């Protein structure tokens, strides 16, 4: 973890436009229309910052969270999108990062939890209207995340077993696994890691 803190992961806020100039922070940079750069960064940096008790990284995560919460939209939306262009997916890694922050720093609960409740209420309304997951990735990740939320996480001891997890080189699996394969969400690196 110290190597990560001293290396690229611990310094993205200093120079990487996807973080330092993110649309989430009033900037112009993002690598995807899902607006997931800051959510992924926060979801990774909170455990790094608090796992190492690193004041510099805790300050960075605090500044980002403050900005995001200060700019929560009046209907509860978290993020830079206008209503016509909202996709729920990028909020899930953000919510994971925010939940980890509350676990690591309980004093943030009084600010973070009301924002999450407002967002979840809006998300429920969006899903009831069948909006907010227009893109392929958003749909795939939404269903998997809802399942994980419903199950209160995944029992990893049950997941990494013969018959459940693919233990061999994925390039040798036939038929080949593509982004349209039914098992792809389970072998996609980000999904498996989360």
Main β sheet profile: none
**Helicity range of the residues?**
55-70%
SS element count, helices: 11
Mean pLDDT: 85
What is the rounded distance between the termini?
18 Å
Tally of extended strands?
Answer: 0
What class do helices, strands and sheet pairing give? mainly alpha
**Taking Cα atoms only, what radius of gyration do you get, to the nearest Å?**
18 Å
Low-pLDDT ranges: none
Q: Proportion of β residues?
A: under 5%
Helix-strand topology string: HHHHHHHHHHH
Give the overall silhouette: globular
What does this structure look like?
The chain is mainly α and 194 residues long. The protein is built from eleven helices and no strands. It has helices at residues 2-6, 12-15, 17-20, 37-52, 55-70, 91-104, 109-128, 136-151, 156-159, 184-187, 189-193. Helix 4 (37-52) packs parallel to helix 6 (91-104). The longest helix is centred in the middle third of the chain and has 20 residues, at 109-128. It is globular, with a radius of gyration of 18 Å. The model has no long low-confidence stretch (mean pLDDT 85).
Please give a handful of descriptors for the protein shown.
single chain; 194 residues; mainly alpha
């Amino acid at each position: 973890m110290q190597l990560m803190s001293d290396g690229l992961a611990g310094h993205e806020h200093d120079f990487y436009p996807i973080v330092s100039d993110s649309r989430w922070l009033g900037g112009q940079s993002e690598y995807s229309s899902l607006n997931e750069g800051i959510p992924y960064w926060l979801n990774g940096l909170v455990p790094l910052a608090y796992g190492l008790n690193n004041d510099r990284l805790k300050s960075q995560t605090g500044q980002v969270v403050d900005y995001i919460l200060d700019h929560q939209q009046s209907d509860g939306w978290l993020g830079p999108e206008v209503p016509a262009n909202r996709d729920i997916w990028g909020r899930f890694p953000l919510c994971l990062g925010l939940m980890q922050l509350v676990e690591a720093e309980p004093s943030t609960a009084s600010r973070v939890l009301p924002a999450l409740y407002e967002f979840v209420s809006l998300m429920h309304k969006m899903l009831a209207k069948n909006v907010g997951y227009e893109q392929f990735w958003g749909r795939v990740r939404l269903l998997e995340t809802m399942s994980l939320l419903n199950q209160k996480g995944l029992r990893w001891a049950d997941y990494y077993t013969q018959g459940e997890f693919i233990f061999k080189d994925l390039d040798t699996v036939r038929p080949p696994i593509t982004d349209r394969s039914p098992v792809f969400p389970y072998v996609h690196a980000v999904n498996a890691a989360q």
